[in-house]
Amino acid sequence: MSNNKKVFVFDDNTDILELCTIILEDAGYDIKTSSTSNNIIDQVMGYTPDIIFMDNWLPDVGGIDATRELKAHGELKHIPVIYFSANNDVKSLAEQAGADGYLSKPFDIQELEDIIVKHLEA
User: Fold this and answer.
1) CA quadruple 32, 106, 41, 95: dihedral positive or negative?
2) What would the pLDDT profile of 29-64 be if each residue is shown by its tens digit?
3) What is the number of alpha carbons within 13 Å of residue 102 lying toward its C-beta?
4) Tens-digit pLDDT profile for residues 63-105
5) Quick check: bond before 59 cis, omega within 30?
6) Which end is more exposed in the chain, N or C (fewer Cβ atoms within 10 Å of the end residue's Cβ)?
7) How confident is the model at residue 2 (pLDDT cuts 50, 70, 90)?
């Protein structure tokens, strides 16, 4: 049983998912990825991550609605959700969604790691 911190990344862009997987595994995290936020509660309950990255543009259920569902859920609302998007208004999207933080795309590796550390040590 690994006691690594677990990161769940939701993004419909497989390149981003692969990039995040490489970066985060290299940094010692366990990572799960999904290209859809459908059945978000079931997906997250099945993995119980320590932190979630949520893309804005997801098919069917968008990032805002998915984040709101998580934040309305008694057992899951404590998990930090980091909103990430190439939109220049990512900050206001994150606020609308009730996310705990945000990361603009394109991001650099250091930014990705810094924001995880910041939210997991809080």
Assistant:
1) positive
2) 999 999 999 999 999 999 999 999 999 999 999 999
3) 22
4) 999 999 999 999 999 999 999 998 889 999 999 999 999 999 9
5) no
6) N
7) low
Phi and psi (nearest 5°) for 85? -165, 155
* Phi, psi of 91, deg, nearest 5: -65, -45
Q: How many CB atoms lie within 10 A of CB 16?
A: 20
Domains along the chain with CATH numbers = 6-120 (3.40.50.2300)
Name the E strands within the chain: 6-10, 30-34, 51-55, 81-85, 101-104
State how far Cα 109 lies from the chain centre.
15
- DSSP category for residue 93: H
Work out whether the CA dihedral 120, 65, 16, 107 comes out positive or negative.
negative
Question: Nearest Cα to 96, choosing from 81, 106, 79?
Answer: 81
Torsion, CA 12, CA 65, CA 77, CA 36, rounded to 10: -20
